[in-house]
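Hi, here's the filled form for the chain we discussed.

Project: internal
Contact: R.S.
Residues: 261
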Amino acid sequence: MPEPIRSICLTLPAYNEEAAIEPLLIRAEQALRPEPLEWSVIVVDDGSRDATAAIVERLAAARPWLRLVRHDRNRGLGPAILTGIQSALEGPWAADRLIVCMDADLTHPPETIPLMRARADATGADVVIASRYQPGSRQHGVPLFRRTLSFGARLLFRHYLALPGVRDYTCGFRAMRASLLRRALARFGPGGLITRTGFACTDELLVHLAMVGARIEEVPFILRYDLKQGASKMNLGLTIRETLKLLRSHRAQLRAGRDGE
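And the returned structure, exactly as it came back:
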């Protein structure tokens, strides 16, 4: 079994989230405060053009657990997630840290994080996914078209990749052990762990973690798309093209990795 988790770091990639970031951080504080370990939150402002960074700076002035990291320009979701991971791997308690990544638009409930931490500690899982496809999961406010796309993506991923323990390949709400992320960075390098800038970066990261021996489990959660602030930032056409391209390359990578075992 891996070492017990001794700290949690929540990382939030954020781009133009001025309406959502403060209520989300308040909820995150309320969810994490009862946890019996050290915890912190890192917001990666990905070149926002609104007041996202200013709001986080104001809140951080009175909250030592909150840190703002800024990109000088909008680089995309993949680089923002990578910056959050690299930042969370620094500092005290990082050796046995659970690094959580989630959306900053209020669709992912931070109240699920204690359940993810408990599952990782109880089972020794390296990755715990907040899954839309586990008993007890619900989705509020997701348009039928988006639900259909997500279901189709799930079938494609299961056919091409078939990762043990995974039903939800594309949800970016995940908890990952620092030790696993260090192994992945050592193998792929900072420039290779996440190469995609758009939403396809989430499945790319998951496959790379699987290739370094991640044990993956899932917990149910409630997706609150009805609380989303503003329009979706997903470029649907680009995401579909990137995903289909990545599925073929991911399957080849996984097969090569398994053949080499």
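Let me know if anything looks off before we file it.
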